[in-house]
Amino acid sequence: MARAKSQFICQQCGASYPKWVGKCENCGEWNSLVEQLPVDTGASAVARSSGKGKALTTLKLSETATETKQARLATGIADLDAVLGGGFLPGGVVLVAGQPGIGKSTLLAQVAAFVARQQPVLYVSGEESVSQVKLRAERLGAVDSENLQLASSNSAEDIAASIQTGQYDLVIVDSIQTLSLAEIASAPGSVSQITNSSNVIIRAAKASNTAVILVGHVTKEGSIAGPKVLEHLVDVVLNFEGDRYGGFRVVRAQKNRYGSTNEAAIFEMHEDGLQIVANPSASLLAERQNLDGSIVLATMEGARPLLVEIQALVNPTNFGYPKRAASGFDLNRLNLLVAVLEKRTKLNLSDKDIYINVVGGLKLSDPAADLAVAMAIASASAGRKLSDEAVVFGEVGLGGEVRSAQGWHARVKEAKKLGFIYAIAPKTHKDAFVRGVGDLRQALIDYLQ
């Protein structure tokens, strides 16, 4: 009998190749192909399935039972409940992703300990033993909890069967990349294993009306590892961001079928677990020194206003090509702002190394950070300071014009609460607190001293 030819499957997009190649031509990922035995699909599978279906049982809209008033499971953390849209919905599947050491298991152990005070919870670990999970749970406050059950398994079938019993209101699976189905020959973490294991668990969650949390790994680029279909299968995708060695950790919803994606929860790691930062703006500015290159930005983390310090350092370059580096800010956006500064002002930055840092380990995606970053670069380059009484926000266009920012009322309110006197912002925002500027050149001339 002829030997079955193996295929090479991309672990990011699922494309197949007859031989190994370094780069997937479909999605562009490097070194993502893994050798697998071919699966019996195609025309034969279609032919076998034809004629086996039966007509669906349908209901009128008026006859369909509504489940909108189901009680959600509170997490014990008000900000996390807001990110989820009110807590965990029974039958909902949540994917929590973040880099190693960021605090995913710690946060979920805290949530499991709180929920277990009222409802039965199952915590399944595919990476740790039961004793290791117990040590963490006890350290985080789940002492002698009768409702918290622990298990260690890599079998998706066994976990799905446990969910279908209906004995648990919340099931936590850590992590989806370690699970496998016995019917599939590929290794755990492959596209086929992740896709099919997720399907089995999600079906069990929907059938038993059980809330399920899946933990996912991330790649070195920061995206969720595995096929993109995993994010489409689940109901909520939470991203855990920040610096695992210090600073704040931010949990935001990348996808949420049951709530808003504009909320964010800001945590700080302590000995007894992750704690919500009550006033992150004050914490971020507590150690600030008003030097040249330091600007206070009024930004938005989801729907929450936040004041954060932007630092810039400008030095003459010792090489033929100047260096641009950014921590917490998009490097392409930095290069664009440097070009605007050179073109629309009299600053000469072509022979300068420029470094940008967002204090606190935060990653900014707010377009209104442009004006603060540009003023920080100009301040560091010219050796001039901005007043301690000012905050800055506004988007900068290619013509040097300062454009309006979303949520500016919340930004102004947060600045007032922390004792700032005025805001340098787009002139389209009519408020006594705002000192409007029309373009970048005007902002530099009028306010850098």
Automatic annotation (TrEMBL):
NCBIfam families: sms. It comes from Candidatus Nanosynbacter featherlites. The middle region has homology to RecA with ATPase motifs including the RadA KNRFG motif, while the C-terminus is homologous to Lon protease. GO terms for molecular function: ATP binding; ATP-dependent DNA damage sensor activity; damaged DNA binding; hydrolase activity; zinc ion binding. A motif (RadA KNRFG motif) lies at residues 255-259. ATP binds at G98, Q99, P100, G101, I102, G103, K104, S105. Gene3D superfamilies: 3.30.230.10, P-loop containing nucleotide triphosphate hydrolases. This is DNA repair protein RadA. The keyword Zinc applies. The gene is radA. Belongs to the RecA family. RadA subfamily. Residues 353-449 are annotated as: Lon-protease-like. InterPro entries: AAA+_ATPase, DNA_repair_RadA, P-loop_NTPase, RecA_ATP-bd, Ribosomal_Su5_D2-typ_SF, Ribsml_uS5_D2-typ_fold_subgr, Rubredoxin_2. GO terms for biological process: recombinational repair.
